[in-house]
Design goal:
By secondary structure, the chain is mostly helical. It is built from 15 helices and four strands.
Length: 329
């Protein structure tokens, strides 16, 4: 992939330019290639304070007040991520940055922040949902902390799937800083944050979020019903904008991390395979699984880039056929 002439290291965080300022006249494939290049450039740099630089720049372009608590709160967590701070959690040490993980590490957190910024720009351009500066800042903060302490495994413990296990760790690691900065407002903030972060656990949360979004978008008159285990998502049922924020985070976390172009998709597949299995042997299978996840775009903003996903999917399938043919010879 050739480097776009207008993209430089300095422009990496210029969210006032393409691709962060969404241009309706720009082809989605060009948009994807530009974003893909930026993410690849980002992944190859290990500068100190990178996470804080990214989240601070993005927060500054949401319209949030400069004295908002989002800035000191994001700074505290960014510093812990960039310094690879460790914490004792249930008898083991966890890294805030997931530094030993191939996929769920600090670079992934940085990518998701940038992906969320792009979705905010797309949403602003098309006006599907009117998000306040605070709601945009909330999405960016959720992007920052959504994988804190990720241990490089799935939500499995002793061979059993534990829904929201990793998501719970992330919220709990962020909670002390939230409580210290927000004081008596922390409890309500954490309740909303938990609902948005837990929505990124695809298997149990995806159908629940889908029902909530369908209700808010007027596609069904049936109010979502919750089991005791699903009560965590009640804030999304009660607040349509918060539900859209959750949908945008899900898209930024999964689809937008892997669907800009084939190079990004393939690299993500290899890294996730290494993280889960210690090798890249399952890369082809993981890539096919990624395609299924790309079809699960949830946010209205994410739908605007679906044509780019289709381009990536078609080209990637052709490459997979070549790879599979080669391995069978």
């Amino acid at each position: 992939m050739s480097q776009p002439s207008f993209v430089s290291e300095k422009a990496l965080l210029d969210v006032t330019k393409v691709p962060f300022v969404f241009n309706k006249s720009q082809s989605v494939q060009s948009q994807g290639n530009t974003m893909g290049f930026i993410l690849q450039l980002l992944a190859r740099k290990d500068n100190p304070d990178k996470t804080w630089q990214i989240i601070h720049t993005c927060l500054s372009h949401t319209g949030i007040a400069k004295d908002s608590y989002f800035f000191p709160l994001a700074r505290r967590l960014s510093d812990k991520i960039d310094s690879h701070a460790e914490v004792e959690y249930e008898g083991r040490k966890l890294s805030f940055s997931g530094k030993m993980n191939y996929y769920h590490n600090y670079r992934h957190m940085q990518e998701v922040i940038l992906n969320s910024m792009l979705l905010i720009s797309i949403n602003d351009a098309y006006g599907d949902v009117t998000l306040s500066p605070e709601e945009k800042a909330f999405l960016l903060f959720a992007s920052l902390i959504h994988d804190l302490g990720h241990d490089g495994t799935a939500n499995m413990k002793d061979g059993e799937n534990i829904p929201y296990r990793l998501e719970k760790i992330s919220v709990e690691l962020a909670s002390p800083d939230i409580q210290e900065v927000l004081g008596d407002k922390a409890a309500a903030f954490i309740t909303d944050l938990r609902a948005v972060i837990y929505a990124t656990d695809i298997a149990p949360a995806s159908p629940i979020l889908k029902d909530i979004l369908a209700y808010h978008r007027g596609r069904t008159s049936k109010k979502p019903q919750f089991t005791p285990n699903d009560e965590v998502f009640r804030p999304l049922k009660e607040n349509p904008n918060l539900a859209e924020v959750a949908a945008m985070l899900c898209d930024a976390d999964i689809a937008f991390s892997i669907a800009y172009n084939f190079a990004c998709t393939w690299e993500a597949s290899i890294n996730l395979s290494k993280e889960l299995t210690g090798s890249d042997a399952l890369a082809l299978n993981n890539l096919n699984a990624f395609y299924d996840q790309m079809a699960e775009i949830k946010s209205l903003a994410g739908e605007k880039l679906r044509p780019n996903f289709d381009v990536v999917k078609d080209s990637s399938k052709k490459m997979l056929n070549i790879q599979n043919l080669g391995s069978s010879l």
